[in-house]
Specification:
The structure is a single chain. This protein is α+β, with helices and mostly antiparallel strands and about 600 residues long. It has a domain of about 50 residues. It contains 15 helices and 13 strands. Helix 7 packs antiparallel against helix 8 and helix 13 runs antiparallel to helix 14.
């Protein structure tokens, strides 16, 4: 980063000191959660069990895990959530102009171009959206809090990249509306990574790099928070609404101060309790059952081993045995039988374990309870036993949508919509969603257009003015299964209304009832709520051209029919005149 982006050494140090002090406060507020997160990770996501303990990469972390239903349920629920919210990659949403802009010249065509471009860049493999979203959802299921970052890239082919931020290194704070707007994220980086990423590094880091200690760790704190109006600069990144500081915590050194126009990381909470900043998760609900199941399965394993290889006793006349009874599987216990006159076998089974069927039933009950905690019964709904009509299926889907709607709605509101909006902002600013008639970006895009032999997309003037006025120009419309579940009642209502009007239209005297229906809006709503492809719907300009052409053809046909009628009348009149002797002669 260029040095002229700093406000001055004194101010920068003050900002760093304030940030470190606030970070300490946020860590103190988060501390009660860490022990809970540690227990959750040990049960449901062992690879992240480092909240209160230190693990090394590659450590075997399953020493005390005897049953893995909990982790499997968490991973399965995360996978289903991804498929519900993002089934067709970036084609799971589309941007529609706001109502005030619909139908204006060039607007519909422009947004069709915008959707193609944004979906293309979000789908790029190197952008990493799907990988980040998958990891985000896993943390949502286990910890209930995680972040999805959207960052600008200098790579022209991948202008936007995505990252998953985990709750381990993250401390958050909410605004008055209950949304996270402050994030303090710490992570260890190697000396080599710090040197490659930052220009303003501490001299000791330079010394470590010069000494070849590339893999030594440096703790880096990334601060993302709203910038105080009084602290904003007049222009550049320091004038932006969101401030970010990158601090070398190890050496107490500010390495970067930047700004963002919008919050770059969207933090989602799976389930949220009023008054708490961190979310709660299905794994928290399932933790008692998962812990009990793990202990029960350990006991079943031990008991089964004893059944297969039971402990034995051996009678002896000597003084062996030592007074200790070994009840482990395959153990041999020697008992002193001197002075006894018994008919016991000299070698036999010490004891039997007993039946295990009741333990197996309890085990299945725990498994079912864990699956219900993760809502797998509603997420999967693999109903292969009962045949249903289409109407019954729609009712079932509506009920599933109502049961899952709150979880889907929070994911959409807190994470997906902000991520899509920030992606739009980045692409628009780079000129990848069209350009203005003039400007530096327009010149660069025109040069690309000349190289590729393609015309560039010009942003309609009305959209330019609306964006300059900081007005919303689009709405995010989701076409995922999750949204269809939530909108299934609306779609069913449209079909019910259509059936009613169809029946009423044939009733004598009720024909005018159809005047109440805007069939164009009905058709658009059916396409929207059913999740049909956007390409199925014609643009407003295309519909207008078709109807004007049809009206013109009908007018020409009417004129032709009228001309034919006039010609017929003239012919009939001429024939009549001829029949009466040419109009002036006598009748024969």
């Amino acid at each position: 980063m260029a040095k002229n982006e700093y406000k001055g050494k004194g101010t920068a140090l003050s900002a760093m000191d304030k940030a470190l002090a606030r970070w300490g406060q946020l860590k103190t507020r988060k501390e009660p959660w860490n022990s809970h997160y540690q227990r959750l990770s040990e049960t449901f996501l062992t690879r992240k069990s480092s909240f209160t303990s230190t693990i090394s990469p590659g450590d075997f972390l399953y020493d005390n895990v005897f049953e893995n239903t909990g982790e499997q349920a968490a991973l399965q629920a995360a996978s289903v959530f991804v498929s519900m919210l993002w089934p067709d990659s970036a084609r799971s949403f589309r941007l529609r102009p706001v109502r005030e802009l619909r139908g204006l010249p060039g607007v519909d065509e422009y947004f069709r171009f915008v959707n193609e471009q944004q979906q293309r860049y979000m789908d790029a493999p190197r952008a990493g959206f799907l990988l980040a979203f998958q990891e985000f959802e896993i943390d949502q299921q286990v910890f209930g809090t995680s972040g999805l970052g959207t960052f600008e890239s200098e790579d022209e082919s991948t202008p936007v990249v995505y990252e998953a931020w985990n709750v381990k290194g993250m401390c958050v704070s909410e605004n008055a509306q209950g949304f996270v707007d402050t994030i303090y994220y710490s992570e260890p980086k190697t000396v080599r990574q710090v040197i490659e990423e930052y220009d303003e590094v501490h001299p000791k880091v330079m010394e470590l790099y010069a000494a070849g200690k590339y893999e030594d760790k440096v703790e880096v704190l990334k601060v993302i928070e709203p910038r105080n109006v009084k602290e904003r600069g007049e222009k550049g990144v320091l004038s932006m609404a969101i401030r970010t500081l990158h601090i070398d915590v190890t050496h107490k050194h500010l390495m970067r101060e930047k700004g963002y126009a919008s919050l770059p990381v969207a933090v989602g909470r799976m389930i949220k309790t009023i008054g708490e900043e961190y979310g709660r998760s299905p794994a928290m609900t399932a933790l008692p059952d998962a812990s009990s199941l793990n202990a029960l399965n350990e006991a079943i394993i031990v008991a089964t081993e004893k059944q297969l290889d039971p402990p034995l006793y051996l009678l002896d006349d000597g003084r062996l045995g030592g007074g200790t009874v070994d009840t482990s599987a395959g153990a041999l216990n020697v008992f002193n039988s001197s002075g006894r006159m018994t008919g016991e076998k000299p070698v036999g089974t010490l004891f039997t374990v007993g039946e295990l069927q009741s333990a197996e039933k309890l085990k299945e009950a725990f498994k079912e309870s864990i699956a219900q905690a993760f809502a797998l019964d509603r997420l999967l709904d693999l109903n292969n036993q009962t045949q249903m009509t289409a109407f019954e299926t729609s009712i079932r889907n509506r009920m599933r949508g109502e049961a899952l709607g709150s979880m889907f709605s929070r994911q959409i509101a807190e994470v997906l919509t902000p991520t899509i909006e920030r992606t739009f902002d980045i692409l628009y600013r780079k000129g990848l969603l069209g350009v203005r008639e003039t400007g530096v970006v327009a010149m660069a895009r025109r040069a690309w257009g000349a190289v590729l032999g393609k015309p560039i997309q010009i942003v309609p003037e009305v959209i330019q003015k609306a964006i300059d006025a900081e007005l919303d120009v689009y709405e995010v419309e989701y076409i995922s299964p999750a949204k269809r579940f939530m909108q299934s009642e609306k779609l069913q209502g449209i079909f019910t209304a259509a059936e009613f009007f169809q029946k009423m239209a044939v009733v004598p005297g009720a024909e005018e009832i159809l005047d109440n229906v805007n069939f164009d809006e009905m058709a658009r709503d059916v396409i929207t709520y059913s999740g049909a492809p956007e390409t199925m719907q014609r643009l407003t300009s295309e519909i207008k051209a078709i109807r004007e052409g049809r009206a013109q053809a009908q007018e020409q046909q009417a004129q032709l029919a009228a001309a034919q009628q006039v010609a017929t009348v003239a012919r009939d009149a001429e024939q009549a005149v001829q029949a009466f002797g040419g109009g002036g002669g006598q009748m024969q």
